[in-house]
Amino acid sequence: MNIEDKVIIISGASRGIGRATALLLARNGAHVVVTARSAEDLKKLETEHANIVGVAGDVANEADMQAVVQTALDRFGRIDVVINNAGYGIFKNVDDITVDEWDAIMATNVKGTFLLTKAALPTLKAQGSGHVVVVASDVAKRTFAGGSLYTASKYAQEAFMGALRKEVRPFGIKVTGVYSGLVDSHFHEKGHGHETSKNWLKNEDMAESMLFIISRPAHVVIDEFMVHPLEQEY
């Protein structure tokens, strides 16, 4: 699984899946440009591997995402992979969701995916190669009570990927949707490492999945990658 010298951008990289993925890819020889809102967390991540470059920013801010892409180009001259990982959830019944909560989730999960991808696309098209990965969720394909807001954002990511895939394949650009089940991370209400989540997927499992996806030969694309812990019924 050779990714040496590939230039990879990862959003939402200050913790969880994004952080684990950045470290694994850097250890495998990639140049990794990471972004998140916390400059302090990114600086800590930079100290853990010389191949990691942090650029603080908000995925919902167009100028911030353009700056992330420009940093990658200034430092390395190209972009090979964009991993849209930033996202979070609010779980309430519809009549309890505020307009501000709706807007905030959509801004990060949906608009953020759009803005980072849009910023990188001119470079990927000019290169005639590249790979856009979107870390969605298995709830991009199912719903549950109390999940209307989160699942709506993930269904939107799914639709975005489907259309994007058709647009960019003629340019030699791959698009992969990653649909994870339960992951033992900060994302969940009881937090990372709780007894109830001991058999869930680990952040490192997701990082290994990302490494596998982006290291396929040039003629191979994994359009969709669904992964669950064994204890989660599918």
TrEMBL record:
CDD domains: SDR_c (cd05233). It comes from the Bacteria. One of its GO terms (molecular function) is oxidoreductase activity, acting on the CH-OH group of donors, NAD or NADP as acceptor. GO terms for cellular component: membrane. The keyword Oxidoreductase applies. The keyword Oxidoreductase applies. Residues 6-179 form the Ketoreductase domain. Keywords: Oxidoreductase. This is Short-chain dehydrogenase. It comes from Spirosoma montaniterrae.
